[in-house]
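Quick one: structure tokens for this chain, please?
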Amino acid sequence: MPLTKAPVAYPFTSAAVIEIFSDGGSGPKYVGSVFLIKTAKHNRQDIVLGAGHNLSHLSDKDAEVHVTIYGNRDVNSIAVKGDGGYRYAVAGTAMPKDFGVAVLAEALSDAFSPIPLRSPPDATTIAATPAGGVADKVSAGDRSIYQDTTDFKVHGDVLYCAPDITAPGMSGGPVIDKTTDPASGVGVIHGTGTVSIDGGDPKPADLAVAMTADAIKAIDALIDVALG
């Protein structure tokens, strides 16, 4: 289905638009998405996971960051360390390690339940829901979370689907498996790219980082760094 506004209900209330103002201009320089997460090691209300290529811009200590959780009109930010830097850590900015974590300045109430991370099921295809903010809509003042529904193919530590399923601004948002109870995050949206299967020619696709066991282990290590 085409992009539609997600209901203001779990798990979409765990997703957020992140805007990074880093040049003193009137509008954000970077727009992306993040989502509240929990792991077996870190069960908190203030940890977000997003795309590394967005969160890497938190290295600018002069940046102003707005994090708008869906369904919550209050704007949060990223916690700051004693040296003035943000509390975040990034694995990488390119596939398949395009993910990072950050600590919110204020923990949210229990009404905003984090999404547990889970490895994709043992299947070559999974029905999933990518979700996140859309940059064009954010520029018009709409910070809602939008969703699509599609079949993602599992290719090692990458999830991919037909191109044009996601939109700019959704990078960093969750790929949600709603067949689990509660819903689980099985991927982090990267955006457009190409994928080559079995040595074939690269083909355009929308890509996401798969939440493999190694990725979840790396995320726990990043959270330790961000909290340290």
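The longest strand covers residues 184-195.
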